[in-house]
Design a protein that fits this description.
Keywords: Signal. By secondary structure, this protein is α+β, with helices and mostly antiparallel strands. Helix content is 39%, strand content 20%. It has one domain. The chain has a four-stranded antiparallel sheet with strand order 2-3-6-5. A two-stranded antiparallel ribbon has the order 1-4. 33% of the residues are buried.
């Protein structure tokens, strides 16, 4: 059976796209999101709720790709967020965000959904608090 070069290239491209990690997909949408996630999730003793979680991390200088990642929540008692889950869940939120959103997304995690995870892009919600 002969396959055309075009068919082979399309198959290879499809396989590459399927194997891309959430981090890679997020990087393609907005590199600032990846930087903010890495900065925020660099803390090894992250708990929700906490001042650190609410303040989050900001990357950018005022442009449309500026990014803030943070977690709000009402967990009682406070819940620890392991670093690997901080990274993987934020990357999954970004990767799964709608096309054209530049990674802007929200999701609920933690026991009983008491953690509200946020990726704000482009000076959206509460941009004055980003600095």
């Amino acid at each position: 059976m002969k396959l055309s070069i075009t068919a082979l290239l399309l198959t290879a491209l499809a396989a590459t796209e399927v194997s891309a990690t959430h981090q890679e997909k997020c990087q393609k949408k907005n590199g600032h999101v990846v930087q903010a996630i890495q900065q925020f999730c660099g803390k090894t003793n992250l708990v929700v709720p906490s001042n650190y979680a609410v303040l989050g991390a900001h990357v950018g200088t005022g442009g449309p790709q500026d990014t803030r990642v943070y977690i709000t929540g009402t967990c009682s008692p406070a819940q620890w967020v392991p670093q690997k889950y901080c990274l993987s869940q934020f990357y999954a939120l970004c990767a799964g965000s709608p096309h054209g959103s530049k990674g802007d997304s929200q999701g609920s995690y933690g026991r009983h959904g008491c953690q509200n995870w946020n990726i704000d892009v482009g000076g959206g919600r509460n941009v004055q608090d980003w600095k």
